[in-house]
Amino acid sequence: MGAMSSIVIRYFGWCAKRAISREKPRVIIVAGSVGKTTTKEAIGVAIGARESGTTVRVAPENYNNELGVPLTIFGKKAPGRSLVSWLIVLIRATSLGFGLGKIGAKTLVLEYATDRPGDIAYLLTIARPDIAVITAIGAEHTEYFHTIDAVQEEELSLLKGLGEDGIAVLNADDVRVMQGAEMSAGKVITFGETVGADVRLERMKQETEGIEVRYVSLAHAVTFHLNGVFGRPPALAVAVSLAVVYYHLDVDLGEVVERLKMQFHGVPGRARLLPGIKQTILMDDSYNSSPLAVMSAVHDLAELPIEERSKRIAALGDMLELGPLSDSAHEELGEAVAKNKVDILVLCGTLAPAVREGAIRAGMDENTIFHFPKSEEAGLFIQHKMKKGDVVLIKGSQGVRMEKISKELMAEPEKAKDLLCRQSAKWI
Q: Domains in the chain, please, with CATH?
């Protein structure tokens, strides 16, 4: 980042902070090692962000850093390389910073990400939460954090931004997250599958077109379907949204459930079910990868119901930015693949040998493991291997570009722009 762009971004942060301080919208912030974007979207749907005339603004895409957060507050998209568009954003920022304009939203649902220690502390100088959500804590960006303990410290620092009237929404299934309960000056609400969670995911049934979920909270119990998604990540994201409306917002539960059923179908590249060629099913989780997230996805692959002669295929790319934890994390991934009914393992990237070693050590036939340096090659290979009724999990870090496999295998590639991640002209 050049000196000039750094100055501009800091100026945007200052203007956003001034606007927040003056207008005092309700601020809901989602942090954690995995599941942030899906959780943010579920909360937005639940509280009416997609309704006509809404006063709720949800951070678009992955607007979760020192530039994305101010842009969300301004209600603007990233300008790209257009100097005119940057000038328009600069005018908007200045207008809000000096009280000449309005944010235009009474509730902001923001996502805070971290690459290095101190990132969340900086974002808190822009906007502090009324409701702080922490999804889970695991190995992420350990190239810079070095240990999971350091990741934990960074993620839990979000709770330092809560006042006495605030609410911390914490994952009861995650010991590291729950250690943050003592840090919250406000009320603590929990979600998860653990008995005793304030909003408990009591049951999740994986189906070929989505998941059936049942949640229990206080005197309430609701059961409904979420179409187009798979696994626990979206189910737990919806649990968070229910926790927010149950315990803080005056929103009718029946209305919330209807919104979730009709409007929440996940986020491109995150736990999405898509029709594949040859009447197959794609589990598109290609946006990014980390040890916690990929283990969950492999387990979900094993649980998806398929016909007796059909195959489960896992197309997995490198998990990047893990630093000293990289080799062991990839070996453990291989072991998990071998233990979770995967028939064919297709690996992409440079870290495949560690995954292969772990899978073979755990009993997987080496003749069912294949490696390709590039995702495009892997996609063509899988296309020839797959048959009617097969299911393909596609997951890897952003740098491996696993969405290219999803595009190669999807039944309607003309819909890629709407259904897959990284389909803008810049990425393509």
A: 3-263 (3.40.1190.10), 272-419 (3.90.190.20)
